[in-house]
Design goal:
Among the domains are: 115 residues, 2-Layer Sandwich (Nucleotidyltransferase, domain 5); 86 residues, Nucleotidyltransferase, domain 5 (2-Layer Sandwich), CATH 3.30.420. Helices cover 36% and strands 17% of the residues. Helix 6 crosses helix 7 and helix 7 crosses helix 9. The radius of gyration is 20 Å and the shape is globular.
């Protein structure tokens, strides 16, 4: 059994050998099927799939994205079944497949951590999931999760700085930031030592390097400057102020979820799991799950399928009886 999570920018695969993660931007025509073919031993290999890439702006609507991902995966794994926001497996490209990856993670963990809030911090988003409210989570879309505060569109790598910051302090003065695609979260987190160049796995805004100096140059542009003008200390300050604001946003949303659900603990996953566990006083799932914690939905959907002794095909070709 192979677990697959198809995002708009990243593809993650879990199998009996371990975890594989690829930068795979669907909006840029990434070779999804070629990447998946590396993990197929036989045409009959079963696969369990979740997705969130249907929202990529290369698709006119979610239904088109769902069909594209469904057909691409099925062309490689004809026996693949797809987990939906109704917590069931499906054999067709139904609307419930849109952005169900977070629910698969919750489904897998809800019995292990029945009174915890799961915070999955990835390259693009932060999922905040009260596991003791699982019955209420079923059927939620990303829109409803945004309204509820269970989805924050801020991540460890791909978030632009002006999506979080409106101004920064430079030489003691408050300076508005430029609403341009000059720098991203990965630039700030690399300069702050939260990630190394090997973890900067997405495209850089200027299509240049991922060294510390390259990141500082991009950060300088956020205030319409360059590194020579603004100086390294101020460029580092921009990174620190970004993280201070981003951290506060995540903390506040997690605190609201803990309070409303009356959860007793916090667990963290995703590529930023270790950093976030320290900030939130939570338990880092990478200690239990290893690399699988950074690709939790792919790992989780595989485990759910295995736990149910394999998803069973319905006679209608729609929802499976699992």
């Amino acid at each position: 059994m192979i677990g697959i999570d198809v995002g708009g920018a990243n593809l993650k695969v879990a199998d009996g050998r371990g975890i594989a993660s690829y930068y795979c931007p669907l909006y840029a025509g990434a070779p999804l099927t070629r990447l998946l073919e590396q993990h197929r031993a036989r045409k009959t290999d079963p696969a369990a799939v979740v997705m969130s890439g249907e929202l990529a702006d290369c698709f006119s609507e979610k239904a088109e994205g769902i069909r594209f991902i469904f057909e691409a995966v099925r062309s490689v794994f004809p026996r693949a079944v797809f987990y939906g926001t109704d917590a069931a497996f499906h054999n067709g490209p139904v609307p419930q497949l849109a952005a169900a990856n977070w629910l698969a993670a919750a489904d897998f963990l809800k019995d292990r951590y029945p009174d915890a809030v799961l915070v999955d911090w990835g390259s693009t988003t932060t999922d905040i999931i009260p596991l003791n409210r699982f019955s209420d989570l079923s059927g939620m879309t990303d829109l409803s999760r945004l309204k509820k505060g269970y989805l924050l569109y801020t991540g460890l790598l791909r978030t632009t700085l002006p999506a979080v910051l409106r101004s920064v302090t430079i030489d003691g003065e408050n300076v508005p930031v430029s609403a341009e695609y000059f720098a991203i979260a990965a630039d700030a987190h690399l300069v702050l030592g939260h990630i190394g160049a090997d973890a900067y796995t997405c495209d850089t805004p200027d299509k240049k390097g991922t060294s510390r100096e390259a990141c500082l140059r991009r950060l300088s542009r956020v205030v319409c400057s360059d590194l020579a003008e603004v100086g390294e200390e101020n460029a580092c300050g921009i990174a620190a102020q970004f993280w201070e604001t981003q951290r506060a946003l995540i903390r506040a949303s997690v605190a609201r979820a803990v309070e409303s659900s009356k959860a007793s603990s916090i667990i963290t996953a995703g590529i930023g799991s270790a950093l976030l566990a320290k900030e939130l006083g939570g338990t880092d799932l990478s200690r239990e799950l290893g690399p699988a914690a950074a690709a939790l939905p792919a790992f989780a959907v595989r485990e759910i399928a295995l736990r149910k002794n394999g998803p069973r095909r319905s006679s209608r070709g729609g929802r499976d009886g699992v």
